[in-house]
């Protein structure tokens, strides 16, 4: 019988791409490898891809390892193997704290998991097992970050920016198109800097997006995790010109107050941030922006938070997430600033910001009522087909609930008329 290997993938979609590559390597070597939600099911080995970005993510990773250790104690699980961001960041500390784990790998040496299990790893293999719905996939174009924002541990984990060559990215997209993938969500820690580390710096983000948009079968390209400073505005021209590049950009702005941005080491001020948003919307009038904002960072008092609230009202982001600052080990902020804002104040600010965003989102969603929109159909439920517009990234953005007057095909596109809206859903009927 094939050895059963269960893999739990935590954290971001960039992690998921690594998990999908590991699944393919294991399958090639004859293992029965599966992506699972919990580490406690019966298996010869359980592999956990960890996240080490913020406190909650680290806690989830540790709890998942502990659950696997308990399953091992009860002889439901054989070996436990851990890789990813948490084990990269705490490579010296974790083995002593968690001796139940049989093998530790970091963020980049995870192919050796295959060797430890008795197979032969091929680190250069481009194969992936697509674990998302078969019509969509995440496309990781770079790893690492050179920005060193004060609050962020990512450069400590992933190291410097390392862009993939456009040839390797194009080859991967063509392979996935041949397998039926139509929608590609492009991800990196810093899309803005793509290609600047490559020889000659000849292939930057606008060129890459244009190149991928030329590939037959690529229906949607969507851009995630841009950085505001030094943003290549030509990307917006490509977006406006190419119908298969979604009018969507995920760009984390974090704050608008100059003192807070300076403390954050974001390399941009409030005025340039406002100019950036205005120019983006001028070049792509139907643009939907997703951003992330932070409350409670050192230097944010009542005045700075009020400025952030005013900015959110003014910018009217179509999609917005927020979180409260949490001090991260070894970051510039942890070494340089006192985390003086009480947790209850941070939470109150976060609640106020998200309540405001819900109002804005409800108004923007309501403006879509009566419009005919193109959606991709993700799945079927009891009463509805569930789809998304070009402005909706999987798992993080609103969905479209389509009534069942007409049969629709999962994975295909459909034209729908929007009949009603809430802050986080659209109702529609197929045309």
Describe the structure.
By secondary structure, the chain is an alpha/beta fold. The strands form four sheets. The chain has a six-stranded parallel sheet. It is globular, with a radius of gyration of 22 Å. The protein has helices at 13-28, 55-73, 85-89, 94-97, 112-116, 154-158, 166-178, 205-213, 234-241, 258-264, 270-283, 302-315, 332-336, 343-366, and strands at residues 4-9, 32-35, 43-50, 77-84, 103-104, 136-140, 142-143, 162-163, 183-187, 220-226, 245-251, 288-295, 319-324, 372-380, 384-388, 399-403, 413-421, 425-430. It is built from 14 helices and 18 strands. Helix 8 runs parallel beside helix 9 (234-241) and helix 12 (302-315) runs parallel beside helix 14.
Secondary structure: elements and pairs:
Elements: E1 4-9, H1 13-28, E2 32-35, E3 43-50, H2 55-73, E4 77-84, H3 85-89, H4 94-97, E5 103-104, H5 112-116, E6 136-140, E7 142-143, H6 154-158, E8 162-163, H7 166-178, E9 183-187, H8 205-213, E10 220-226, H9 234-241, E11 245-251, H10 258-264, H11 270-283, E12 288-295, H12 302-315, E13 319-324, H13 332-336, H14 343-366, E14 372-380, E15 384-388, E16 399-403, E17 413-421, E18 425-430
Parallel strand pairs: 1-2, 1-3, 3-4, 4-5, 6-9, 9-10, 10-11, 11-12, 12-13, 16-18
Antiparallel strand pairs: 7-8, 14-15, 14-17, 15-16, 17-18
Helix pairs in contact: 8-9, 12-14
């Amino acid at each position: 019988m094939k050895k059963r290997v269960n893999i739990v993938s935590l954290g971001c979609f960039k992690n998921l791409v690594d998990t999908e590559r590991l699944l393919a390597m294991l399958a090639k070597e004859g293992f029965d490898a599966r992506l699972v939600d919990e580490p406690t099911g019966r298996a010869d080995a359980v592999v956990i891809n960890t996240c080490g970005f913020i406190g909650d993510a680290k806690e989830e990773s540790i709890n998942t390892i502990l659950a696997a250790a308990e399953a091992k104690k009860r002889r439901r699980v054989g070996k436990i193997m851990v890789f990813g961001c948490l084990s990269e960041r705490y490579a010296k500390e974790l083995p002593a704290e968690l001796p139940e784990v049989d093998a530790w790998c970091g963020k980049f040496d995870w192919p050796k998991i295959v060797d430890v299990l008795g197979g032969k790893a091929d680190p250069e293999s481009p194969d992936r097992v697509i674990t998302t719905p078969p019509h969509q996939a995440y496309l990781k174009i770079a790893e690492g970050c050179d920005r060193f924002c004060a609050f962020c541990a990512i450069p400590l984990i992933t190291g410097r920016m390392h862009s993939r060559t456009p040839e390797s990215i194009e080859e991967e997209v063509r392979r996935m198109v041949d397998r039926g993938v139509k929608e590609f969500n492009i991800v990196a820690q810093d899309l803005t800097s793509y290609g600047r580390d490559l020889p000659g710096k000849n292939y930057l983000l606008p060129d890459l997006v244009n190149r991928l948009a030329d590939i037959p079968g690529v229906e949607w390209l969507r851009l995630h995790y841009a950085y505001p400073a030094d943003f290549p505005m030509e990307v917006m021209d490509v977006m406006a010109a190419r119908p298969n590049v979604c009018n969507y950009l995920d760009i984390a702005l974090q704050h608008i107050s100059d003192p807070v941005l300076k403390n954050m080491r974001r390399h941009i001020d409030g005025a340039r941030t406002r100019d950036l948003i205005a120019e983006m919307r001028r070049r792509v009038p139907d643009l939907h922006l997703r951003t992330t904002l932070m409350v409670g960072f050192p230097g944010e008092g009542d005045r700075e938070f009020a400025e952030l609230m005013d900015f959110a009202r003014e910018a009217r982001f179509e999609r917005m997430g927020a979180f409260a600052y949490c001090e991260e080990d070894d970051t510039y902020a942890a070494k340089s600033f006192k985390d003086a804002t009480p947790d209850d104040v941070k939470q109150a600010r976060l609640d106020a910001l998200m309540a405001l965003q819900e109002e804005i989102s409800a108004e923007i969603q309501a403006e879509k009522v009566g419009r005919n929109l193109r959606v991709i159909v993700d799945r079927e439920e009891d009463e509805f087909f569930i789809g998304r517009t070009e402005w909706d990234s999987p798992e993080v953005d609103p969905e479209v609930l389509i009534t069942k007057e007409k049969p629709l095909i999962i994975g295909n596109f459909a034209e729908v008329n929007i009949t009603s809206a809430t802050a986080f859903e659209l109702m529609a009927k197929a045309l």
